[in-house]
Each structure stands twice: as C-alpha cells, then as structure tokens.
Design goal:
With about 500 residues, this protein is of the alpha+beta class. It contains nine helices and 15 strands. The longest helix is centred in the first third of the chain and has 45 residues.
Length: about 500
C-alpha cells in the first residue's frame, strides 16, 4: 500500500490538465478585465469629447453681455439634443441631468489645482458666479451621483459582485473652456480713460461713462506725451507693421490684440500719426502723395473740414465762409474733454454756412441712452449729411467748400466702412502709469470706436506735416461706441473676433 501511494504521489500524468483547470478562470477573469478597461477607456474618450464640446459651446457665448449665460445654457441644451449614444443603460444618451454646468470668473493658475462642480478650487477660492457680465469660463462635469443608469456608467462583463465589488464602472470627466476675444480692426493707439480719477469713488470705466451718456456729444482731445500720461493723452501699441503712419492710414494694426492684454510702445514722431489720420480727410502729405489712387488710403465719403483748397495739409479758412464740425465748449485740459453739446442752437451757424439753410434738428440717433431728441452729436450730423445727400452742398462764397473728396483719384469711397471712425484701446493711465513707457503688457479698460472730428494741424502750419520741429495740435474725437455689455454693438460686430478654447 505504501509503495502504491508513493508511486501515485510521484506520478505526473494529468498535471497539465489540473493546471489548465485552475488557470482558465484566472485567464478568463484577466481577459474580461482587459475588455472592461478597454471599454472604459473608449467610453471615457467618447464622453470626454462630448463634455469638451459642451464646454466650448457654452464658453463661446460668454462675451460679457447681459444675456451671455442664457445663451450659453441654450447652446448646451441644443447640443445635448443631438442624442449621442454614450451608455449601455438608460436611454443610451447624454442628457442634461447627467451633467453640472458651472460658470466661472477665472481659473487657478496651475492645472494641478482641482475645481469642484461648485466652482471652488482646492485652495478654497470660489470662482463661480451667476453674473453674465463677469463670467468667462464654463465648467462642465459629469455628475458623480445617479450614474447607475447615467451616461458615465456602464455594466461590466467581469462579475465584480462575486468579490464584493460592483458590476458597474463609473467615470466623471470634466472640461473647462474659456472665452477669448481678440480685436483685429484697430489702429495701434491707446487713449487714456478721460473718466479715470485718482479716487475710486468717482472714477468710471469707459463702458460705465458710455452707458450713462457721459461720452455723448463731448469733444475729446488727445495729444501724445512721452511720460506720465493721463486724461487728454494717447500712446502707441506694439504692432507688426514697420510704419505707424501706414497702420493708421489703413486702419489696421497689422495684428490682432487680445482684448485683455496689449503692450505699449515707445518712440515714433507724431507726424506719422497725424499724416496717417489726415488721409481720411483727403489730405496726402509727404510720400503719401503717391497713394492717392490706393484704396487702402482712401478718404471718407464726407470730408467737410472748413478748407478751400489743398491736398497736402490742413489749412482751414479764417473768414468763416466754410466751417468744420464745431469744437466743444468749456474744454477742460486736465480731463481732455469738453462739455456735452448743450442745445440745438449749437448747430445753427455750422448749418447756415455750409448748407445755406436753417438747421433741421438732426435726431440724436447714436445716443446710448436711447433718446433721439437730445442735441445731435458731431457724428450724428456727419451721418445725416451723408444719408440726406447733403455732402455736395457748397458753403458760403468765396470758399464754396463741399464734403466730396477731390484729391483722391481712385474708386469712389463708400460710407461703409466709415473712414472717419477708428477703433482704439482705452487705458487707465493713472493706474498703469508705471507700465506705459516701454514694452510692458497691461490690461486695457476697454476698446472704443471714435469719430475723428477734424484733420490734425501743426502749430506752425507753414512747415511740412511730418516735420517734427513744429508742435502738434491735439486730435479731436468723439466716442461713438464701446465694447462690452453696454455697447451699441457696432464695434463688437465689426472688429472683434470671438474664440473659445479648452483650458482643462
């Protein structure tokens, strides 16, 4: 008996069958796990793509207007209605109940800092907001609860319940996308915010001033200074063009600027700025006299400026037989602006001299407060002259000036796009004084569309307009629109490029 047992113990026949029998469940288990992990990875990728699309769709609407969140929610709803199949249970589709959407004013500097679905990061900072004018990021997260039949869960093949686990796999993808706005059709200039003060209680953003009607009908005068700029001054912005003069004459900086970041630039003579601006009034100085057939250097369709003859420099008549758009009253040099136009009588003399008739009470069509009965702005009068076919009216003899360009020899200029309008940045120069004088990035207060009232003249008008030895007179402007939620939206529609990008 003992010998038989020893032989049986030493007998190795059939051992392979035993090992196979033992390993088959293990191999099958690992195979099922591999299949489940592959399905998990594939499902996560598909679901992540869907969440990315939702966050991008929402972020694209966060442009700072009062209805931005409403439009963002609508974009998500419309995208979800496509019913992409993402689940092995439930209705097999991603639905609104599967996700949480949180709108954020910002995100942590490090991607390693997590943000909860409530918008609070790991450091305790709450980025969430319901203010449609403040938010610029959309966070979309697959809900952690209710995933048993939701888009983020599916039944496994591996029977994990036999080992005390769950036969469901759950994933929770998250995506954060942000709104980026660039401005492309702008000259490389910034103007100091005329409503900024050293006292935060009285200081206004350019958008606030515009919405209140504080900008309407005022004449703003800006002049370039080399140091300590403030209200009434302008400066230069970096661009990719070699000539500031050409950038201003053509109306493009040669590059797009991030709405929230620009870099200041030093140098350049004022003659280049003024010579470029004056092409819009049918005046071609120095080497620009070779551009009188170039469409990019065309004048506006209405160039009435109180001048008899001449194509090279601004030389207004002094006998009042032709008048430019009138300057503002009570101009305040420390603020760089005049009082608003006070009454309809402001226009009596201008209209009688240039049109030979009584002033017809032009509506205040671009007044941001919505009223049309206030005294018209210079831009409103200028547009009225074009719309009513009054550009060809002759002023009083002997000047007999009209608003029709005569020096430009190319194709007839068109009223749209308007060559008397410029898009430029507004900077809080008092707050950013240390950053203004040399290639330092700063955040502008906003962007404006300005109307150029008159050409720019030299203090010594006997010299060539590009001669730096003669002092410069200020640029006379009106503000006709701003960016942001208070705007008339002409600037945004024509100059801004909206983009959404993923951050997480």
């Amino acid at each position: 008996m003992l010998r038989v047992l020893r032989e049986f113990w030493r007998d190795q026949r059939g051992v392979a069958m035993i090992l196979v029998a033992i390993m088959i469940p293990v191999l099958i288990g690992f195979s099922l796990l591999a299949i489940d992990m592959s399905r998990l990875n594939s499902h996560h990728n598909d679901l992540q793509k869907g969440i990315d699309a939702l966050s991008l769709a929402a972020a694209a609407e966060l442009d700072g207007r009062s209805d931005s969140i409403t439009r963002a929610n609508s974009a998500i709803t419309n995208l979800v209605s496509n019913k992409t199949l993402l689940s092995t249970s439930g209705d097999h589709a991603l639905v609104l109940a599967d996700v949480t959407v949180t709108y954020l004013t910002g995100i942590p500097a490090s991607d390693d800092t997590a943000i909860s679905t409530a918008g609070v990061d790991a450091g305790g900072t709450n980025w969430a907001s319901t203010d449609p004018k403040a938010v610029s990021f959309a966070e979309v997260t697959v809900n952690a609860s209710g995933l048993t039949d939701g888009a983020g869960a599916f039944a496994t093949i591996f029977p994990a319940s036999l080992f005390g686990g769950k036969d469901k796999l759950e994933i929770q993808p998250q995506a954060v996308a942000g709104f980026v706005q660039s401005i492309c059709e702008t000259v490389p200039l910034f103007m100091c915010n005329p409503f900024e003060t050293s006292d935060p209680a009285t200081s206004k953003t350019i958008q606030q001033a515009f919405a209140l009607g504080d900008t309407y009908g005022r004449e703003f005068r800006v002049l370039k200074v080399d140091s300590n700029p403030g209200p009434g001054n302008f400066g230069l912005v970096d661009n990719n063009l070699s000539s500031i003069r050409d950038a201003i004459a053509m109306g493009t900086s040669g590059t797009c600027y991030n709405r929230d970041a620009l870099t200041t630039k030093t140098g350049v003579t004022l003659g280049q700025v003024n010579t470029g601006l004056n092409t819009r009034f049918d005046l071609y100085s120095g080497s620009l006299n070779k551009q009188t057939k170039n469409w990019q250097y065309r004048p506006a369709s209405n160039v009435r400026k109180g001048q008899k003859n001449g194509c090279s420099k601004y030389d207004p008549v002094t006998d009042n037989t032709a008048l430019p758009l009138p300057p503002g009253t009570n101009y305040n040099d420390s603020k760089g602006m005049s009082d608003p136009i006070g009454s309809q009588g402001f226009w009596t003399n201008y209209w009688q001299v240039n049109h030979g008739a009584a002033y017809p009470t032009v509506p205040s069509a671009t007044n941001p407060t919505g009223t049309t009965t206030a005294p018209a702005s210079r831009y409103d009068v200028y547009k009225y002259e074009i719309a009513k076919g009054l550009v060809d009216d002759k002023s009083t003899a002997p000047t007999k000036e009209t608003g029709t360009p005569s020096c430009y020899k190319g194709d007839d200029p068109t009223p749209d796009p308007d060559r008397r309008l410029l898009n430029m940045a507004i900077v809080n120069c008092l707050a950013n004084q240390a950053k203004l004088n040399g290639h330092v990035q700063l955040k502008p207060d906003g962007y404006v569309s300005v109307f150029v009232n008159t050409p720019i003249q030299k203090q010594d008008n006997t010299k060539d307009p590009e001669d730096p030895s003669a002092g410069e007179k200020p640029i006379s402007l009106e503000i006709v629109d701003v960016d942001g939620g208070f705007a008339n939206n002409t600037l945004v529609d024509k100059a801004f490029r909206n983009e959404a990008q993923l951050y997480r």
